[in-house]
Amino acid sequence: MRVDLHIHTTASDGALAPAAVVQAAARGKLDVIAVSDHDTTAGMEEAVAASRDLPLRVIPAIELSTSRNGREIHILSYFIDLASPALREHEERARTARLRRIETMVGRLRDVGAPVEVEAVLAAAGGDFGVVGRPHLAQALVEAGHASSISEAFDRWIGDSHRAFVPNTLLDAAEGVALAREIGGIAVWAHPPGDLADALLPELVRAGLQGIETYRPQSQPDHVRRLEGLARTTGLYTTGGSDWHSPERNGPLGSFTVPADRISAFLEAGGI
Ligand code: AMP
Ligand code: FE
Ligand code: FE
Ligand code: ZN
Hints:
The chain is an alpha/beta fold. The chain has helices spanning 18-27, 44-51, 85-111, 118-124, 134-143, 150-158, 173-182, 194-207, 221-234, 247-250, 264-269; strands at residues 3-7, 32-35, 57-68, 71-78, 186-189, 211-215, 237-240. It binds adenosine monophosphate (AMP), fe (iii) ion (2 copies) and zinc ion. Residues 63, 74, 190-191 line the site of one fe (iii) ion (FE).
């Protein structure tokens, strides 16, 4: 079975609309994908509808933005209940909080000599934007001539260690795990940073964490082995995915798949 459990669409900061993502996944011969946009499920209905006539299954998911001590921590929730009131409430609060946060970052960028208009960021997010994020701000920085590429914009101005960076602080990491469970999903820590995994994992497990994202396209073998070890000792599922945003950034969908034998327990828990 060919599986990719981490994919973004234009509902957040992906390049393709949900239906186009599903069609591209089918062309890439994927059997199961999870649509996991940042803090929104606005793309889910279109994605699921597009999958109906294709030999492909879409797992409804969301990637919750949380933070701890100024660091961004992303918590995935899989097989979520799309009718959950707590989910609706989070989506609404996150949309506003992300807009305020981008306004703060725009203010800081002005102070460090890289002025952009908030309107330009919202335009990059799409007219009827769902959530606005740093990739949209990066695009506005490129358009304003402050960087020559999205990755340079991150490197020069808005990467995690820069003065203009403001983390998403709506949820603490443990609260994010609890919310991932409350909305009916299986809670998985997305791309756990090497230096945080050991320290934070016990607390997140107590908060209800059920899995860690272990298999990613650029993961180093020793990091993968370490996460597999942590998963074994704490009784967590291992999962994985490409964190797909665009063909330019990630190649075609289906060029990365998760080792099927390593995620069978997770898939079974979700009824696949
Ligand atoms: P945000 O949720 O607004 O903090 O934005 C985080 C998103 O920015 C990630 O999900 C990626 O899509 C993107 N991102 C983070 N770092 C980089 C980078 N160095 N280059 C390009 N995109 C990045
Ligand atoms: Fe993203
Ligand atoms: Fe993420
Ligand atoms: Zn992601």
